[in-house]
Design brief:
alpha+beta; about 325 residues; nine-stranded mixed beta sheet; D-amino Acid Aminotransferase, Chain A, domain 2
Length: about 325
């Protein structure tokens, strides 16, 4: 590794099994990695820098940690840290890294120990390793980054095979297959249908659609991740007086929709301007999408104090605590 590379490319610290750890010291044996990935569950959380207030706001931290603990529960992993402990860990990490820009926070829990596939048994609880990383990741909100989507030939994994409700690393093979196919065929992204042939979600985002002024989105039992952004957008839209209906969505509805967009922690709000080369609406970002995007932008940066309960100040401006 080139001299100085660590400091420019990586933050100073990550969090590993209860301790803030210098990035370069967080090493493990190579054989652990592949096996652990099979079992790994994780979260993706965005923190947004508010320049005027010189503050970093973590979006829906409570909801993300609740989902993290629920993912652990569903895979029968031991829950060694509470949401309060993980909140402290994340705040400490952001401060120690002097995070003063938009940041992607990733808590990851996996069955450690190495040695191949581990069977979870009642008598031999497997050791759980947890890491939390926080790395710069800039927002694309309000940047008018639109996408052309295809409906994938891959089917979204169903709950009784590989539950999308669990934020499991392994689930992303299904997403990667769809994304790669889309890209090779000249599209920016994919929309996956579920085993019932209804719209499920994107490779890393949920889908919302506008028809005649009403916002529709597949329900939480339609083979989707229970997205925190989706839930936030539903609440926000209703607060803005926009009717929202959660129901199965047909593929052909996408072809006649006025607006379609993805939402998610990394996707934020991503307008889809064509599906299978059918233009969505007039082929540009639509007015309801724009309204939601503007409002969402102000909320995540902590500018709209009506939603102050959705953002956790990470007190980044306080400075770097001692080791
Ligand atoms: N679906 C999938 C498959 C995802 O990976 C994500 C990103 N976490 C989402 C939906 C959006 O979820 P959230 O809004 O909680 O980030």
């Amino acid at each position: 590794m080139a001299e100085g590379h660590e400091t420019s490319a990586f933050p100073r610290y990550l969090w590993w099994n209860g301790k803030r750890t210098p990035w370069a010291e967080a090493t493990t044996h190579v054989t652990v990695i592949g096996w652990s990935s099979v079992s790994a569950i994780f979260e993706g959380i965005m923190a947004y820098w508010n320049h005027d207030e010189q503050e970093l706001f973590v979006f829906r931290l409570d909801a993300h940690l609740r989902r993290f603990l629920r993912s652990q529960k569903m895979v029968r992993m031991t829950q060694d840290y509470t949401a309060a402990q993980l909140t402290d860990a994340i705040t400490d990490l952001l401060q120690a890294n002097d995070a003063r820009e938009d940041t992607y926070i990733m808590p990851l829990a996996f069955i450690g120990g190495g040695g191949g596939f581990r069977r979870l048994t009642a008598t031999d609880p497997a050791p759980t390793d947890i890491t939390i990383t926080a790395r710069p990741s800039s927002s694309h909100l309000l940047k008018r980054e639109w996408k052309h989507a295809c409906v994938s030939s891959w089917t979204r994994i169903p709950d009784n095979v590989m539950p999308p409700r669990i934020k499991n690393l392994s689930n992303y093979r299904n997403s990667q297959l769809a994304s790669a196919e889309a890209s090779i065929n000249g599209y920016d992204t994919a929309i996956l249908l579920n085993t019932a042939g209804k719209v499920a979600e994107g490779p890393g985002a949920c889908l919302l659609m506008v028809r005649d002024g009403i916002l529709y989105t597949p329900g939480v039992t339609d083979s989707i991740l229970e997205s925190i952004t989706r839930e936030s957008i539903i609440t926000l839209a209703r607060d803005l007086g926009i009717e929202v209906v959660e129901r199965p969505v047909d593929r052909t509805e996408l072809y006649i929709a006025d607006e379609v967009f993805f939402c998610g922690t990394a996707a934020e709000i991503t307008p889809i301007v064509s599906v299978d080369r059918y233009p969505v609406g007039d082929g540009e970002q639509g007015p309801i999408t724009s309204r939601l995007e503007g409002a969402f932008h102000d909320i995540v940066r902590g500018k709209d104090r009506r939603y102050a309960h959705w953002v956790t100040p990470a007190a980044a401006a306080v400075g770097v605590p001692a080791d």
